[in-house]
């Protein structure tokens, strides 16, 4: 413990497990033989989350500890040689490994083949400012039925959702990322949403395609076992919302409270303030009562 | 006439309303699932493959995206809004989708000695203000730290109390008291830490938790095995585990009443030895031992001198020394001259077995 400075202590504390965690950062890595396309793809897709791209793909877990990141994106470029009788065909495929870590061990890792890729520079449109929290839409039955797709959805959500905020500027809801699971492929498209007048408060949406788009194919997966997955989701007790006692809500949303009173002596209860009824030094209560009664009688006569 | 035009106007107004509503309404078989906290929408509707193939892919995807985004925006607009510095901001609820954490949640630390005591007595923590009013300087100063309000150390005059020795240095006394307090505080802090990490204290000899050698691991296994109520007698052995070498007994004694012939033989041998002319003490052996001992002492002295003079060249010297010492002290396993590493490793050897 000697030689620990305040600075190093702050550093260690920032890396220690916390109650409410910070935004997840992602590591972008290139394999030994990545091509231009893949590099471009990596840069575009997670332009706002890059920590540091690494050239060498040595231990993933080591790098994750170094940079304190729990998400990673690893791009590479496979050349498969099929030896046919006459000639040798080479199929080149671009592959992206997306994954996340829990406690510096791999939790999920999914291999995605990139079939078609359109980069940011290819699309000529005005772009969204970097750092906007995107709206995410997942379409297709597969994201709900197939286990692997469900995990992929959770992983993509982790990657793209950005920091959790309590409020968002209405005019700043510009970026939309749309994932469609269809026909064995996953189509990722990135749009800019334009909010048009619609006559009522809610605007009408028009989309303009921007940004990178790719067609992905789900290949091999290395998913965490159910136990490990459950373990990774364990939230500390301190974060559970505390229920306030004596407050209840009914079906209409009305808030009810309960107030606990001590036993009251109803004989000493005062109702409305009547200056005349205030107890004075002498015993004048009887007089007042008499005074009241004739008044009442008079009124009764009057009406009749 | 008036009625006609009024009707026409109403009809027109209705039509316009319908159009406006149409522009933001989207028809879907199944409602989407929303997680507004994450700005997420999930569309579980079946996508018609035929339509997808007929149209141009991009257009189909784009129109699908537009519909889904419209629904998401509709949901977001239902949330409460407020105005924050010229911008309208919508308040988002907490994210609903459970996502895995980065690291496991931090373990609760056991309470310190003071915290336990405070809990017992019901002492609450009183929040203290950062600044205190200093009368002499007539300004607000920190309660603690640099340029604090009541700084003991800055006093230039200390009254000698009546009970104290007039020759005692009061300033030094103060400084000493402070260092004592600091040391005590540090000691208590370390004790708190040690208590917090109590579960991690290892058994003697098994201290390392990083890479352990085969011998260390097997030692750990044997220790674990014998730490049962029956001292490991009923513990099954693993398939490839070898029976442990004689771990417990360091000496074997003959049973008191056993082999009579053996006992008799031994006793007679002993008498013969006592009676015999041959001296028990092996002179040559003793002399050699003495010489070795002297050599070693010399080498140790030389090494110390050299280490004092030329610290830098100690590496070379220690190499030579190690060779000398290693040869001389192999069996002994004692301190080899200058070869702390080589000799020290064999330090645990049985002394005088020769």
UniProtKB/TrEMBL annotation, chain A:
Residues 271-282 have a biased composition (Basic residues). The keyword rRNA-binding does not apply. Keywords: Nucleus. One of its GO terms (biological process) is ribosomal large subunit assembly. The keyword Lipoprotein does not apply. It is found in: Nucleus, Nucleolus. Residues 271-304 are annotated as: Disordered. One of its GO terms (cellular component) is nucleolus. Belongs to the RPF2 family. This is Ribosome production factor 2 homolog. It comes from Sparus aurata (Gilthead sea bream).
